[in-house]
Specification:
The protein is of the alpha/beta class and about 450 residues long. The protein has helices spanning about 10-20, 40-45, 75-85, 90-100, 115-125, 195-210, 225-230, 280-295, 300-305, 335-350, 360-365, 375, 395-400, 410-420, 440-449, and strands at about 1-5, 25-30, 50, 65, 90, 105-110, 135, 145-150, 155-160, 165, 170, 180-185, 215-220, 240, 245-250, 260-265, 265-270, 315-320, 325-330, 355, 380-385, 405-410, 430. It is an enzyme of class 6 (ligase).
Length: about 450
């Protein structure tokens, strides 16, 4: 079968393409912006990519068109599909019908930490010899690919609350029918499709409604929005993590790189790993709870986590030049920025820390998170904000409210010059964006040579 994917370089659609190829289909795809890591992964898989949405790519007609949720009416390829009556489907629906049917799905939902936690969970199951399938919105370094079918009943999926397609406004995760569900946290996000937090809570409750009574829901005790979701009705056993929960930790190092795990008051073992930050400790607890539900004893899960290598673009060290360390991070929400910087600060102590932030997500461009930004960067010594041409609000005003030195730059060259003038051996530079950031990481490393 020839499947053509519109919007193939999104992390979800690119991963779905890998699964379709593994099922034996002829897979092609197109996107407006073809950039790594997804583009390189797809090319390595032998999947043919077309830049742009010229309808010519749909002639001869494929057997099925899978339409990504970034596509909207007016897109030339979408209009061609509709006018010609070509068969089309959303990515989540295709996945539900052709991959997830009849499997034990372990879904990881939440505003933050989905990619990292689903990577941890897939790795813990792999380490335990369970060879799970998975679809993750990033590339876990323990696997070097973002998706695979796997040959056992178990399938780990990053369960996103974003909408499925222009013709299906339900959250992607309602298609997945998980038996084990992690609800990591819940804050307002995706301001382009949700008017407020209660609208997102309703979608999370739609997910909870689909989890069988023999399944398991895992959530932290510290998230008021998730407690409200569960209070709307839950027909499934629940395990809680964190303060007052069944799963708890005792930090053995301030930066979160070593901690003791307890389940129902009994010590299960100690995780010692390369990760930092309280958020990753929380991710680990949820992972251990989910893995236990499919039969992985906590001690085995703890051993796996100690060998966990994180995900590309999640505090990934990309270069060290003349004693200056450069990291690439996907954070694009004030909470994620704050927890990431806090974890790094605890690891590096008083070493100079420069944060470079691109407000690129749809919610950021709409200004939904701007009030939280000044507070999110307090652990940095200085911040460089990148102002893209299409930002609809005053980034300079936000920068002025920061308690640490902050400047706004509208060019990569300006950012590079600023870092060159400020960074000395021992400085840590974190580049935060949910896009390619114009290849800033490589350009900065080169300029610092």
């Amino acid at each position: 079968m020839h499947i053509h994917i519109l919007g193939i370089c999104g992390t979800f659609m690119g991963s779905m393409a890998v699964l379709a190829k593994e099922l034996g289909h002829h897979v092609t795809g197109s996107d407006a912006n073809v950039y790594p890591p997804m583009s390189t992964q797809l090319q390595a898989q032998g999947i043919e990519l077309t830049q742009g949405y010229d309808p010519a790519q749909l002639d001869p007609a494929p057997d099925l068109v899978v339409i990504g949720n970034a596509m909207s009416r007016g897109n030339p390829a979408v209009e061609y599909v509709l006018n010609k009556g070509l068969p089309y489907v959303s990515g989540p629906q295709w996945l539900a019908d052709h991959v997830l049917q009849g499997r034990w799905v372990l879904a990881v939902a939440g505003t933050h930490g989905k990619t990292t936690t689903s990577s941890m969970l897939a790795w813990v199951l792999e380490h335990a010899g369970m060879s799970p399938g998975f679809l993750i919105g990033g590339v876990p370094q323990n696997f070097s690919v973002s998706a695979r079918l796997g040959d056992t009943p178990f399938f780990v999926i990053e369960a996103d609350e974003y909408d499925s397609a222009f013709f299906d406004k339900r959250s992607k995760f309602v298609h997945y029918r998980p038996r084990t569900a992690i609800l990591n946290n819940l804050e307002f996000d995706h301001a382009d499709i949700f008017p407020d937090l209660p609208a997102i809570e309703r979608q999370f409750h739609h997910l909870v409604r689909t989890i069988p009574s023999e399944g398991l829901v895992i959530h932290p005790t510290t998230e008021p929005a998730l407690l409200r979701v569960i209070e709307m009705g839950c027909w499934t056993p629940v395990q809680t993590t964190g303060a007052g929960g069944q799963w708890q930790v005792k930090l053995l190092s301030e930066d979160g790189s070593k901690f003791e795990v307890m389940f129902e008051g009994a010590v299960q073992g100690v995780v010692e790993w390369d990760m930092t930050g309280q958020h990753n400790v929380a991710n680990a607890l949820a992972t251990l709870a989910a893995a236990r539900h499919v039969g992985v004893v906590p001690s085995m899960g703890i051993a796996a986590l100690s060998a966990f290598k994180s995900v590309k673009r999640r505090m990934e060290k990309v270069a060290e030049v003349r004693g200056i360390t450069i990291y690439d991070d996907f954070a694009h929400h004030p909470t994620a920025i704050a927890t990431t910087l806090d974890g790094l600060r605890k690891r590096i102590g008083d070493a100079p820390l420069i944060a470079i932030i691109e407000p690129r997500s749809n919610s950021m461009k709409l200004g939904a998170h701007r009030d939280g930004l000044p507070e999110s960067v307090v652990d940095a010594d200085q911040v460089i904000w990148y102002s893209p041409a299409n930002l609809g609000w005053d980034l300079g005003g936000t920068a002025a409210l920061c308690t640490v030195p902050s400047i706004v730059s509208d060019s990569l060259e300006g950012i590079i010059e600023r870092v060159k003038s400020q960074a000395q051996p021992g400085t840590h530079v974190v580049i935060m964006s949910n896009g390619g950031f114009g290849g800033l990481h490589g350009k900065l490393a080169e300029a610092l040579q």
